Amino acid sequence: MLDDVPRTAAYRDALERNPSLMNGAKVLDVGCGTGILSMFAARGGASAVVGVDGAAPMAACARANVAHNGVDDRVSIVQGKVEELLRKGDVQLGGANSYDVLVSEWMGYGLLFESMLDTVIAARDAMLKPGGAVLPDVATIHVAGFGRNATSQPFWDDVYGFEMPAVQADLAEEAAKLAVVHGVKGAHVCTTDGMVKSLDLATMTVLDTEFSSEEVLITARTDGPIMCHGIVVWFDTAFSERFCKEAPVVLTTSPHAERTHWAQTLLHFPEPVALVPHGSFWWGKDQPKMGLIGTRTNPAKGIKVRIGMAKCKEEERARGLDISLEYEPVLEDGTPGTRKARMYQM
């Protein structure tokens, strides 16, 4: 992940450009990997850093990196799963109120797929001093609509001069069941965006990792009519002014920003929704609207969206995530169309 520049640079800036937080601080790095965040913390002024990783080869790698870069006088690496180490009372971790700062790159696809957030919360509650900093400290989830060009469908329109609608139909059917991790260009986002969830990492509990969001309205933002093929989901994590007073940082995975390894998560509609921005018309100003709201003959102004996320309860998908989506096209006067609900596996 080190070649993910937006990700790594955000952590570097938070740890190295906030002296009022970092000078003399004791820092816990949960899931330390190569040790890069631990070394950023040491270079940022921390007096002592403990990096923890559950994988023995990864912990050995981090230990070697720390020694090679001459910060092993301040950085120590502990191998083991945080929850198990806490259960054993491992003295290498320290006890309650041991750390001023907890840092972790815990995020997964869609924010919560295979994430380490439960572990971060356990470490925070067991070892962070009251009022201590969690980096990042705020995570938000956002949604918008995407057009056909964000999907794989256009490729099959002309495959060396041949059309392949059967392949398109199979792909569309499969995509309507699964949350698809795929990079989306900003130009292929066809609506405004909305924030559906905000998590305060300093105070949230494990129960907050499962939720059903408030409803948000996203509206057509293109110059003319567009078919919206689904909802694109992304997240931002903030190293906010609460703890990073000198240099707050936002790490975004937005399709409008530089791409990260998280890309975005796509929730495909089984049938696209026709949208027109304010002042635009699909057939012409004087043509009567007819049919279901959100179809070409009766396009909507926007879509009301609600999403939910929950850990999968099936044993064979023990680390999976289930994402629910409710959506409803609405006319400019607020008249709603048919509300639909779908479940996507991740």
From TrEMBL:
Read off the Pfam families from this record: Methyltransf_25, PRMT_C
Give all residue intervals belonging to the Protein arginine N-methyltransferase domain: 138-275
Q: Mind telling me which InterPro entries this protein's record contains?
A: Arg_MeTrfase, Methyltransf_25, PRMT_dom, SAM-dependent_MTases_sf
Q: Which UniProt keywords apply?
A: Methyltransferase, S-adenosyl-L-methionine, Transferase
Keyword Thylakoid tagged: no
| Organism, as annotated | Micromonas commoda (strain RCC299 / NOUM17 / CCMP2709) (Picoplanktonic green alga)
| Limits of the Methyltransferase domain | 27-132
One Gene Ontology term of the molecular function aspect: protein-arginine N-methyltransferase activity
Which is one Gene Ontology cellular component term of this protein?
nucleus
The parts of the chain that form a coiled coil are none
Q: Name one GO biological process term.
A: methylation
For this entry, the protein name equals Protein arginine methyltransferase
SUPFAM superfamilies xrefs: S-adenosyl-L-methionine-dependent methyltransferases
Q: Does the keyword Zinc apply?
A: no
